[in-house]
């Protein structure tokens, strides 16, 4: 319900206040005439419209489904990933909201400028690594003590996972993501200025009995060149593509060289199943077509021509004498 609409209790309380003198009509009118000021925090500049944020949400819902399939195959266990929120916040606020020690994968997405951050909850990351190494998928948190082998396994796993973003973004940009940096301490990571607006897509991840969040942080500088493609008008418009003359010529050449089954039908006849079962070599079946009637020539299963039988170089042949319309086709 809209905040401008009063409930019945609020209406009764207002009428009661007017009738008892607690509030006068002049005071009420004066309050309505006062200017309503909406505070705007320049440190939390909203640089994306709600429409654009919804478009990013739809794109990453598709990405979450792709990741679900990818991780289920890689880890050979139950995996469920779904988008729970998409918000635009200052980069500094996002960094403060994630754990002090976590899994941070920084990706570059050429040809777009800037970097995208994938933050993975340590419990989820260790559960994935445990499954890859043959364990049950137990989630623990000891990020500060990562060994070189564990770091390599995790970075390889998430790098291959993030490559699926190419398919999810295919409608808005042709990107080639690759892992540029792997970090565990957010304080050592400075992708953009603290006040830069970023879009944070949070995905709830469940692996077996372990659950946690995967956050994707996309700075405004990355999305700036493709922002027009995030509008509803771009998604709803239909582009009419005209074929080049060379393409039409190539198609015509391929169609002309296509093989078609051609059948010359001598005639038809109807017999009983009993007669059919008793047929033997040498038996004669009387056709319903006269010897002087033209033959029906079929292209595939559709009658297209009439013809007459004959021989060419001692081989049986059919001479086309006319065209006809057959089946449900009206084209000759």
From TrEMBL:
<dbReference type="InterPro" id="IPR028976">
    <property type="entry name" value="CheC-like_sf"/>
</dbReference>
<keyword id="KW-0966">Cell projection</keyword>
<protein>
    <recommendedName>
        <fullName>Flagellar motor switch protein FliM</fullName>
    </recommendedName>
</protein>
<keyword id="KW-0969">Cilium</keyword>
<dbReference type="InterPro" id="IPR036429">
    <property type="entry name" value="SpoA-like_sf"/>
</dbReference>
<dbReference type="Pfam" id="PF01052">
    <property type="entry name" value="FliMN_C"/>
</dbReference>
<feature type="domain" description="Flagellar motor switch protein FliN-like C-terminal">
    <location>
        <begin position="254"/>
        <end position="323"/>
    </location>
</feature>
<keyword id="KW-0283">Flagellar rotation</keyword>
<keyword id="KW-0975">Bacterial flagellum</keyword>
<keyword id="KW-0282">Flagellum</keyword>
<dbReference type="InterPro" id="IPR001689">
    <property type="entry name" value="Flag_FliM"/>
</dbReference>
<comment type="similarity">
    <text>Belongs to the FliM family.</text>
</comment>
<dbReference type="InterPro" id="IPR001543">
    <property type="entry name" value="FliN-like_C"/>
</dbReference>
<keyword id="KW-0472">Membrane</keyword>
<keyword id="KW-0145">Chemotaxis</keyword>
<dbReference type="Pfam" id="PF02154">
    <property type="entry name" value="FliM"/>
</dbReference>
<keyword id="KW-1003">Cell membrane</keyword>
């Amino acid at each position: 319900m809209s905040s401008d609409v009063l409930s019945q209790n609020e209406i009764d309380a207002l009428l009661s206040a007017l009738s008892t003198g607690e509030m006068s009509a002049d005071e009420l009118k004066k309050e309505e005439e006062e200017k309503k000021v909406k505070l705007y925090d320049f440190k939390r500049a909203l640089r994306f419209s709600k429409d654009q944020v919804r478009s990013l949400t739809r794109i990453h819902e598709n990405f979450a489904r792709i990741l679900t399939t990818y991780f289920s195959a890689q880890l050979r266990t139950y995996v469920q990933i779904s988008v729970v929120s998409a918000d635009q916040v200052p980069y500094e606020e996002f960094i403060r909201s994630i754990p002090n020690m976590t899994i941070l994968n920084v990706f570059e997405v050429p040809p777009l400028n800037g970097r995208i951050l994938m933050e993975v909850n340590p419990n989820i990351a260790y559960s994935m690594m445990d499954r890859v190494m043959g364990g049950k998928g137990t989630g623990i948190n000891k990020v500060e003590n990562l060994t070189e082998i564990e770091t390599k396994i995790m970075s390889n796993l998430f790098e291959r996972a993030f490559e699926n973003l190419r398919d999810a973004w295919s409608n808005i940009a042709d990107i080639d993501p690759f892992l540029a940096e792997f970090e565990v301490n957010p304080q050592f990571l400075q992708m953009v200025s603290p006040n830069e607006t970023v879009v944070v897509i949070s995905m709830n991840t469940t692996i077996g009995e372990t659950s946690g969040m995967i956050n994707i942080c996309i700075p405004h500088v990355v999305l700036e060149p493709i922002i027009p493609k995030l509008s509803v008008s771009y998604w709803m418009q239909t582009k009419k593509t005209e074929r080049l003359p060379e393409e039409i010529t190539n198609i015509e050449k391929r169609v002309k060289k296509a093989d078609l089954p051609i059948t010359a039908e001598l005639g038809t006849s109807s017999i009983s199943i009993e007669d059919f079962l008793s047929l033997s070599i040498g038996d004669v079946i009387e056709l319903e077509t006269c010897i002087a009637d033209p033959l029906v020539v079929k292209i595939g299963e559709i009658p297209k021509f009439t013809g007459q039988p004959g021989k060419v170089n001692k081989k049986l042949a059919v001479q086309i004498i006319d065209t006809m319309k057959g089946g449900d086709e009206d084209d000759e």
